[in-house]
Amino acid sequence: MVQKDFEYVIFKIEDNVGVITLNRPKRLNALNYPLLMEIIDILELNSKNKIIRAFVIKGNEQSFSSGDDLKSMGPEGPRFKPLADGSKLPHQRVIRLIREIQKPFIALLQGYCLGAGFEIALTCDFRLAADNLKIGDHRVNRAHCVMSGASWLLPRIIGFARATDIILTGRQLDAKEALEIGLVNKVFSLSEFSKKSKEFIQSIAKLPTRCLGYNKTMLNYSQYNELFPSLKHEFKLYCKNIASYDFGEGMKSFQEKREPKFKGK
Fold it and tell me: CA 202 to CA 258: how far, in whole Å?
């Protein structure tokens, strides 16, 4: 892996987990162009890193992210340069990478998770929340549209009517309501959030990474394909998974009546 220094993001690999920390705490980890480009660099450099078995995205200190930094916005919207892959915004590239990388992504949400930060959280495979969470898409209150996947992701997570309510009203949900409607997977008290989320992360990181990646790809594919093409796609990836070390370990451990020890390969 190529090592790089980052200004707005902290990146560490801890216990086979790639931890991306948004590091603008004085601005409640608001997103700007350099920060987003640093996330892109991290994901592109580590997308095939065999050491990493899961990714975590979190905010430094009190909040996940308050959304885009309005100081980087002009009267006509974001002042971002289009990227080489055709993305009009760096947010879009981040969203694509999170969905395309065949490893689980876990968002750790506390404090504010709003706007473009909300969209990054929606893109992750799991969302763990502290009980002080305020989550939603407040941009309509400043006449800003969603722009990085909320209109596609949110209805698929919580249903069309609930997504319409959140996006059109701009209201913020607390952790209790977010859990009730399936927007987050788990809620922990703020005092136990670090400990409990770490336990969850490690439970995911110990699973057969390649198998999880194939399942994630199958879920992505099924979102825009009908049943029969999805069945064919599932079988194709199932056959690839059979060749993995972890598949063999899963079968062997079952026959030997013991817990499997997966290596993520």
Answer: 20
Is 137:66 a contact under the CB 8 Å cutoff?
no
Q: Are strands 17-22 and 9-14 parallel, antiparallel or unpaired?
A: antiparallel
Write down the domain spans for the chain: 9-205, 209-255
- The domain 9-205 is classified under which CATH number: 3.40.50.1950, 3.40.50.1010, 1.10.4160.10, 3.90.226.10? 3.90.226.10
Find the helix or strand (DSSP H, E) in which 177 lies: helix 175-180
Among the listed residues 213, 215, 201, the one whose alpha carbon sits nearest the alpha carbon of residue 55 = 201
Residue of 101, 134, 137, 144 lying closest to 119 (CA atoms): 137
DSSP string over 27-85: GTT-B-HHHHHHHHHHHHHHTT-TT-SEEEEEESTT-SB--B-GGGEETTEE--PPPTT
pLDDT tens-digit readout, 33-62: 999 999 999 999 999 999 999 999 999 999
How large is the average pLDDT for residues 67-82?
67
Single-letter amino acid, residue 58? K
Which residues, at least 6 apart from 55, have a Cβ–Cβ distance to it below 8 Å? 17, 18, 19, 20, 43, 98, 101, 103, 104, 105, 106
Query: Which pTM value belongs to this model?
Result: 0.92
Structure tokens at 101: 């990388």
